[in-house]
Design brief:
The chain is of the alpha/beta class. It has 17 helices and ten strands. α14 crosses α15. Keywords: Membrane, Signal, Transmembrane, Transmembrane helix.
């Protein structure tokens, strides 16, 4: 009897509310590709498989009918184009990676797209029901060189002050020390790389390009010249030096304009998630493909290196980070209010199918799930909110910035952003050039020049910065 009474008492307790994922913003790097030093770069079969399986993991997490945390009302098998936005620069590697990812997210649905005609013949759509999901594309550079052909991604950002800031690293004492201390190391590798890099280029200035070249070779090449030189210790040293070099160009805590990529991404994330909330979940999925420097810049701004030094390294192929909108409120009676919505951050340093995304606390907080208002407040500390704000912090006065500077409020604080009626940041419509991808194309062609990475820098400013860089590194940037 006592046992029966206990069970009845448990039945009388209110059921705990299950968590619901309302929406997600996914930012992903491309898959394995050919080396930058041998442009044009192209996505490899391995790279396509990496992002395809990563898309499959996100399908199992949010999309499939038996998903771990299914997003409400999301189409399960046939993609509803109004429910998701996908963007990538005009770049073979990034565009193709996005397409492969989407095939994992929404694979061919042959059983659904096979139709029986009146004459009783059956017709199946090409490729077994391959789903044609558009990837919004924008020009990423003024020249024919695409994002993944550019060895130094900041160079295509279009942000004068960010370019100068990154160039300042090339004249810093830290850079000079690494350059001098590693020179013999790079020179010793000439038998491996001399078909592509001259003796003058075998130095720390080209740390990432050299690492990338050798890393690709160790994955794909059956034979490598003087491969006996590539010991495990040497390969690790190459990676460490490349990480140091790229982190120095992507982020500096005392000069955060250098992280313009992360700032602009933060603005996009805020805008997209806010749209999901205000639209009551009508467009819950946002996917963007971009370069590794965006991860580094955002990691620095979000204080993730305080958790682990791993956040200062170049992320792996098909790495992804996701921002989940979650709630514990019941969604059966209506869309929850912002007071009942939180945000959780996940990161996978590789294909999500191989490296399960892990939750991490942002902004130095102790909790991994933050109230929406807290998330917005912290992101707004560094998010770039609109075109006049971007023009001002970047020091750009040409193109669309010419009109913005005459109407914008140049006296505002750099972290101030334009607000909507909900007090939410209304970020820039696109991410800067080769560093980050554009969500949508807004405005006139001049705006595209600013946001897509077409060079708008003042020649006098860049000349001074490049002169300083050449003086520090002994040559022009490769």
């Amino acid at each position: 009897m006592a046992s029966k009474a206990f069970l009845l008492s448990l039945a009388a307790l209110p059921l705990s509310k299950a968590e619901t994922v309302l929406g997600v913003y996914i930012f992903s790097r491309h898959g394995d590709r050919t080396p930058k030093a041998l442009a044009p770069t192209n996505l490899t079969s391995l790279g396509a498989e990496q992002v395809y399986t990563s898309g499959g993991w996100y399908r199992d997490q949010y999309v499939a009918s038996d998903a771990s945390t299914p997003i409400p009302a999301l189409s399960r098998d046939i993609a509803a184009l109004t429910q998701l936005t996908v963007t990538a620069p005009v770049d073979n590697v990034l565009q193709n990676s996005a397409q492969a990812f989407l095939q994992g997210l929404y694979p061919p649905a042959g059983s659904i797209t096979t139709q029986e005609l009146r004459n009783e013949t059956e017709v199946t759509a090409p490729l077994g029901g391959y789903q044609y999901i558009p990837v919004n594309a924008v020009e990423s550079a003024a020249s024919s060189k695409s994002s993944e052909n550019n060895p130094w991604l900041q160079g295509g950002s279009g942000c004068d002050n960010a370019v100068v800031s990154s160039n300042n690293y090339l004249s810093s004492s830290e850079y000079k020390t690494y350059y001098a201390d590693s020179l013999d190391f790079y020179q010793s590798l000439l038998p491996v790389i001399n078909s592509t890099f001259t003796a003058d280029a075998a130095n720390f200035k080209n740390a990432y390009s050299i690492y990338d070249y050798i890393n690709v070779a160790t994955i794909h090449n059956q034979t490598i010249p003087s491969s006996d030189l590539l010991t495990n210790e040497t390969l690790l040293e190459l990676k460490v030096l490349a990480n140091v070099h790229e982190w120095g160009l992507a982020y500096n805590s005392s000069d955060e304009i250098r992280a313009i990529a992360g700032s602009t991404l933060a603005g996009q994330v805020l805008e997209a998630l806010n749209d999901t909330i205000t639209g009551k979940g009508k467009q819950p999925v946002h996917i963007q493909f971009g370069a590794y420097a965006v991860f580094s810049s955002f990691f620095g701004l979000a204080k993730l290196p305080s958790i682990s030094d791993d956040f200062t390294g170049v992320v792996g192929y098909a790495a992804s980070m996701a921002f989940e909108l979650v709630t514990n409120a019941s969604v059966s009676s209506g869309y929850p209010t912002t007071d009942d919505i939180s945000v959780r951050f996940l990161f996978s340093n590789g294909s999500a199918a191989d490296v399960t995304p892990t939750t991490y606390p942002l902004f130095g907080q102790s909790e991994t799930t933050l109230p929406w208002t807290t998330f917005v407040s912290e992101m707004n500390k560094f998010a770039i909110g609109d075109t006049p704000d971007w023009c001002r912090v970047c020091g750009v006065t040409t193109g669309s910035c010419a009109s913005s500077s005459s109407t914008g409020s140049s006296g505002d604080n750099a972290s101030t952003t334009s607000k909507s009626g909900n007090g939410i940041s209304l970020p820039v419509a696109g991410v800067i050039g080769a560093l980050v991808t554009l969500a949508v194309v807004l405005g006139a062609e001049a705006l595209i020049y600013v946001l897509s990475g077409l060079t708008l820098t003042k020649k006098s400013t860049l000349a001074a910065a490049q002169a300083a860089a050449n003086g520090a590194s002994g040559g022009s940037k490769a």
